[in-house]
Design goal:
509 residues; mainly alpha; two-stranded antiparallel ribbon; 73% helix; 1% strand; DUF112_TM; Integral membrane protein; transmembrane helix; membrane
């Protein structure tokens, strides 16, 4: 009851005219910035930090929360329409959303994403109110072996369900892990694959890799095949979801938050892992598996709901522990410190108006996001009617601006082009792009957790499986790896039984 009463007080704070205005500005700015490739929510919040110096802390953080959710939705918009994720959490949306857009169902894909964000954000924020202390205590108890097991699960799951074969999925993952090795060894400080460049000592930024593989690779691929295309405009499609679409999406909208929220609360990669796992789950459970890779709406609805719920989960660790689990949370933590506020267990007691006003504003922001973007789905989808030479020229321009904005170095543009050529080659030889992005995002963290786990156990491999959580995760990994073999065995057994029954029937007749 105390949480409910505090939340009601928070709505009193969030629904004041000025705070409503900051929430609306945040949602609009976040969506607009999220649409630009490479400029994600973390960069948006960082760029707007100086602007908020004159605001009171409550208004500033309400606007930041709107930017966070808006940028996540904006990133999925370009993922779906142009196969160009605005930020890493939107990578999965491209897998099914882009084929839907190319098939004239871009508006439906955007509507599924918008409602998924709304459902995931609402459920995630309710869980934030109810379960924050419990989830925070669980997050404290997870150690290095558990983190490494989660990342292995992400690697195996993604390489198992994407691409024409597992071999190609693993090859793509190895490319990503290799790029992730570039820079200084986090444990020893030794340079790896830097070729003597001080700029590469910091590694290759994930934004540059994602934008290069998706945006540049896609633009080069389209340019290489432009003369072969018919040039016919792609139909936009109906702006609303039909009954058949709703029947296929309501369960993914509910399953996504269950996967996304816990992963947001633990430092295991933010929204990336739960979106991948949600996609895997929907592919396993769907009755339309043959449509996956060709435009299955479940592959948009589930991951987008998971991404939005993970954003709410991220706030659990940041507000109750002062532990940022994503880049956005790290920037928001810096903003708290800028105002002389230290997030942690005492924050709810010392700054109740700020905390509960922020949480209440998440509900308000979700409603604003849905109200603004659901009617705009057909408008966004009309981007596909822009002539492709102009469209992809614009993509290349914004991709270059986004990559340059990361570090302000001209070398970043050279790296962007090299990675774009790699992305083009991967498309040419049928390698899925997503495992490579996963390798870059999670590879360095997985290596660090592996080495920590081995240090704790004095080099014993048994140290990787010495917790119930890690054993459970590895059991799931083994099941995913063995599932195709089990499936074939079941098919053979059923075939043998049918053959035996048929022979008995013939003999009896």
């Amino acid at each position: 009851m105390d949480s409910l009463n505090s939340l009601i007080d928070g709505f009193g704070t969030a629904l004041t005219p000025m705070n409503l205005l900051w929430a609306a500005i945040g949602v609009l700015l976040g969506t607009a910035i999220g649409v630009l490739p490479g400029i994600g929510p973390a960069m948006a919040v960082a760029l707007l930090l100086p602007v908020t110096y004159g605001l009171d802390p409550t208004g500033a953080f309400i606007m930041f929360a709107g930017i966070y959710y808006g940028a996540m939705f904006g990133g999925s918009t370009t993922s779906i329409l142009l196969n160009t994720p605005g930020e890493s959490a939107a990578v999965v949306a491209a897998i099914e959303g882009n084929p839907m857009a190319k098939g004239g169902r871009g508006a439906q894909a955007l509507a599924a994403a918008a409602i998924g964000h709304f459902a995931g954000g609402m459920i995630g924020t309710i869980l934030l109110v109810v379960l924050a202390p419990t989830v925070a205590s669980l997050a404290i108890g997870i150690g290095a072996p558990d983190y490494f097991a989660i990342m292995v699960l992400a690697f195996i799951a993604v390489t198992s369900v994407l691409g024409a074969s597992r071999i190609r999925g693993i090859a793509s993952l190895l490319i990503g892990l290799t790029v992730g090795l570039v820079g200084l060894d986090q444990m020893t400080g030794q340079q790896r694959l830097t070729f003597g460049s001080l700029h590469l000592a910091d590694g290759v930024d994930v934004v540059i890799v994602a934008v290069g593989l998706f945006a540049i690779g896609e633009a080069l691929w389209v340019a290489a095949h432009l003369r072969r295309s018919t040039g016919k405009p792609i139909p936009v499609g109906r702006p609303w979801l039909g009954r058949a679409d709703l029947k296929r999406t309501w369960k993914p909208w509910l399953r996504g938050p269950v996967i996304g929220f816990p992963f947001g609360a633990i430092p295991a990669g933010g929204a990336e892992i739960p979106t991948f796992l949600s996609y895997v789950t929907e592919k396993r459970l769907s009755k339309h598996r043959d449509q996956f890779g060709k435009g299955a709406i479940e592959g948009v609805a589930g991951p987008e709901a998971a991404a939005s719920a993970s954003a709410a989960g991220t706030l659990v660790s940041m507000l109750t522990l002062g532990l940022p689990t994503t880049a956005v949370a790290a920037v928001m933590l810096a903003a708290f410190q800028q105002y002389g506020i230290q997030p942690g267990p005492l924050l709810f007691e010392r700054e109740p108006e700020l905390v509960w006003g922020l949480i209440a504003s998440l509900f308000v922001g979700m409603v604003l996001l849905l109200a603004l973007n659901l009617p705009l789905a057909p408008v966004w989808a009309k981007l596909l009617r822009i002539p492709r030479p102009y469209l992809y020229a614009g993509i290349l321009f914004f991709a270059a601006v986004g990559a340059y904005a990361v570090g302000g170095e001209s070398l970043d543009l050279v790296i962007l082009l090299i990675i774009g050529l790699i992305g083009f080659g991967m498309r040419r030889y049928g390698l899925p792009v997503l495992p490579a992005v996963i390798g870059v995002i999670l590879g360095p963290a997985a290596e660090q957790q592996l080495r920590r786990a081995l240090q704790i156990s004095d080099g014993s491999v048994s140290g990787l499986v010495n917790t119930p959580f890690s054993i459970t995760v590895y059991a799931i990994v083994a099941l995913i790896v063995a599932w195709p073999l089990i499936g074939r065995l079941i098919v053979r057994l059923r075939g043998g039984r049918k053959t035996a029954e048929g022979s008995r029937t013939v003999g009896g007749g």
